[in-house]
Amino acid sequence: MRAQSGTFGILCLIAGIAVFSVQDLILKLLSGTYPLHQAMVLRSLTAIPILLAIVWGFDGTLRTLVSRGWPAMLGRGLLNFAAYTAYYLALAALPIATTVALYFTAPLIITILSVIMLREHVSAQRWLAVLGGFGGVILMVRPGGDLFDWAALLPIFCGFAYALSMILARTMGRAETAAAMAFWGNLAFLACATALALWYGPGTREGLGHPSLAFLTRGWVWPTMTDAALMCLCGIIAAVGLTLLTQAYRVAQSSTVAPFEFTFMFWGVLWGWLIWNDLPDRLGWVGIVTIIGAGLYVLHRERAEAGVRLRDMPAPPHP
After folding, report:
1. How open is the CA angle 315-81-175, to the nearest 5 degrees?
2. How many Cα atoms within 13 Å fall on the side-chain side of residue 189?
3. What is the mean pLDDT of residues 185-208?
4. What pTM value is reported for the model?
5. What is the Cα–Cα distance from 297 to 43, expressed in whole angstroms?
6. ∠ CA(67), CA(71), CA(75), 5° rounding?
7. Alpha-helix runs per DSSP H in the chain
8. In the chain, is it the N or the C terminus that has fewer CB atoms within a 10 Å radius of its CB?
9. Predicted confidence (pLDDT) at residue 79 exceeds the cutoff of 50
10. Distance of alpha carbon 52 from its chain centroid, rounded?
């Protein structure tokens, strides 16, 4: 039974990652015409009824939404908004594969923050893995080189903010359900996206100097029916993908399914190749392999050293 639940959990997680990769593809395709806040408002509105159904299905009641911890869940949602806004803005300027690879610095940053905030012990082997992973980041970012783009710092910031939210979730998750945290996180997305829309929506503060800035500051554009449907589809994707990921971490041990988060890299490379004929160069591939290898080793060593599974670390939100 344990083996079967592990296999089912892995399949759910792989499916959830595949679903979420389509959202990245949609947002990158729309980034040259529409503003990010417009897509996020429509996405968040679409996701509300679906997430309510998910809360009811997983928690059996909607009372978990009005627990005393809702301000903390909302605050964590704001942190995730900052993280994934940076990630989406990076998609406008960078290849998907590069953005995804730099985002996977999160496991390395979680290791650092666990020492600073939770006073956890980290062995020399894990510190070496962290250093090696950030060596891979340098290969991909190439500061000072002709190929450097400051947008490459955005997914690294996303990894930092996401890692901080995961550290917070290690304590919050003891009292709050994953479904409730997802619902309040979506409300935080809606509130922040609405605020950005009110500020940038009229189009009087548009910045055209860089694809990421244009994606952030562009005024609202009346969408075609197809594009409006794609924005709303992101809400369905977020809800369905979250359900799959939650199911994966519910039926299987986190130590079993967590390494398969890195299948996200496959989709980043595949979409970049199929849609834009865009593949990493040799140094880029070395950086990708180094970052992923370091992240997997950190996950392995955490389980081996602590003798515990990653139950305290909830599934990534992938909003």
Report:
1. 45
2. 32
3. 89
4. 0.81
5. 35
6. 135
7. 2-30, 36-59, 70-93, 96-103, 106-118, 124-141, 153-172, 178-200, 211-217, 225-251, 254-257, 264-276, 282-306
8. N
9. yes
10. 21
